[in-house]
Every structure is written in structure tokens, then in C-alpha cells.
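Predict fold of Dehydrogenase; 352 aa.
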Amino acid sequence: MRVAQLGVGRIGTFHAATLHAHADVRELLIADADPTRAAEAAARLGAGTRAVATVDEVFEPGAVDAVVITSATASHAELIKRAARAGLPTFCEKPIAIDLADTMAALHEVEAAGTILQMGFHRRFDAGYHAAREAVHGGRIGRLHTARALTSDMSPPPPQFIPLSGGLYRDCLIHDFDILHWVTGQEITEVYAIGANGGADFFREAGDVDTAAVLLTLDGGALATATSTRYNGAGHDIRLELCGTADTIAVGVDARTPVTSVERGCATGVPNPWTGFLDRFAPAYRAELAAFIRVVTEGIANPCDGRDALRALFVAEACEVSRRDRRPVAVAEIEEQAAKLAAGTTSRGVVQ
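Predicted 3D structure, encoded as C-alpha cells:
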């Protein structure tokens, strides 16, 4: 198959290498807002790859069989819509968009066209999270009563990224919201979120926070917490703990987990901690693209469609409202807003 890669920043470059190496991808087209960067990425990959100056070439009839979107977040919704209009199966890194209106509009076009949209929630393809899901659904831990999730970056992203990221809840914790549902099978029904700024001023200037904590209520009766920070100097720390009446299990606890015990007799220091998301989740990123290719070529079930992404965005949006208003927020409150937007999209073709 012929695949177009749209955007070759950090994650895009990684995905391009994965696609280039895949046996079922006979040609890879690379497009980027910066034609020079696209050409350089293509040159590094070598044979079987050609760069394009603009994305317009990608959407010409018959140019490609599928697209992979890893461009800047602000461009996702429009590229998803263009792919849907062209009838192209699409893989897109999260999020669809950073607000409900653009998200609902993009999903409307995908569903109207009947095309495939697979979203990049890579933790669903990580071996540890798979094992945790099997343990929960298989009854190993008994009744789940408490879950603790965390996403901690070793160091902040560039300042220019923050105003376009959607904020800490939509950019980082959205992965925790998705994986909590996927692993436990329970819906998040209510959140209470707080945030803090103790680091660089550019977070506050963008209306964002650099550290956040959320208390979540699940519809099966369990309680959960989700925390995140941009300043975890010990290393990149991504974990999930699941506590039940029969057992407690954890994802992300291994020899590279950047946590040092101060208990007597315990080994001190982590000689090779995880340093970033590509370091921590490289196999999962490869697996999600392999799944996308199978969705397109073999017709297997979509492992993470646009509605899955929307569910996680509902929770992130509820967190933003909760932080702003300093109150618990039911996720149903956000779902009602989305329903109104969807009605406007369906009746008029665009969100008003």
C-alpha cells in the first residue's frame, strides 16, 4: 500500500521510519509544512520514499491509499476532514482537535464519509497495559476499588508548543483518561481537577498549568486519581496502579522506573531511567501503526476510533471546567454540550 505521512516532527519522524520498514508499505510519501524538513526526512529513509512540498499532492485522486497525521495539533481536524472527503483511511495522533466544536465537526465528516479513523492512543498497545486489562477483566484483582494513574515528563516541552497543545489535561492526562476506561471497562462519570504553576511563566501565560491532579469517579464504583507534571527531573514516569479486593497490580514499574526508595536496605538510584515517551513506548508506537495497516488491508476491527478519542476528550474538558470553576464536574455536562454541537453539525453541515 501507499501511505502518506503528514508532519515529520519528533513523533512523525519515528512513525515515518516505522512505516518505511513495514513490509506492506511499498511507498511512503512525506509531507510537511516545511518542505525542506520533509525532503530531509525522506533522504534519511532512502529508497521507497519521496517527499512532497505540500499536503495538496497527498489528497489528489489516487495518490495514496492511506494517511498518517502527525502534524501540529491545530492542523489535525482539517486534515482529518480532507482525508474523509478523499475517502482515505486515516491514522491520527491525538487529539482530533483541542476543542469540542472542531472535534465534533471532524467526526461528523468521518462518519458521513464512512471512512476509517484510528486515533493514536499508544498505551492500548503496550504490553504492561494489556496485561493489566487481562488481570482486571479476568478477575485476578477482585473488585477494583482504587486506581492511581500518573504521567510525568522529565522536562518541559518548548515554550512555543504549550499554547498549541491544548493544555496539560488534553495533552498529557488524556492518555490516562483513555487507558483507565480501556483497562477497567468503567466509564469516568465525574471529575474534580486542580492545577498549579511553580515553573516557567510560559505555562501560566498560555492559560495552562505545569502540574495537575484529578480525582475521578468511575461508574463501577471505583475511585481514581490522575496526576501529571512537566517537571519530573528523575525521569519520564508513566504508571498505573490498580487496587482490588484480591490483589494490587502496577503498570510501569521496572528497572527503569525513575523512583528511588529511601527505605533501609533498598537499592538507591536508577542508573538508566526512562527519558521520554519515545524511549518508554517505542514498541507500542510501532504496534499501533502495524494495527492500522491491518485495519486497512485485512479489515480487522478498529482498535481505537474517533469516538474513543472523544470519550477521553470529554473527561479532559470536564477537568478544564473543574479547574476553572473549582467544583466537581459531571462528564455528562460536557456530553450535553457535545450533543448540541453534533445537532448543529448534522442539521447545517458545520458547527455554528
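The first strand starts at residue 2 and ends at 6.
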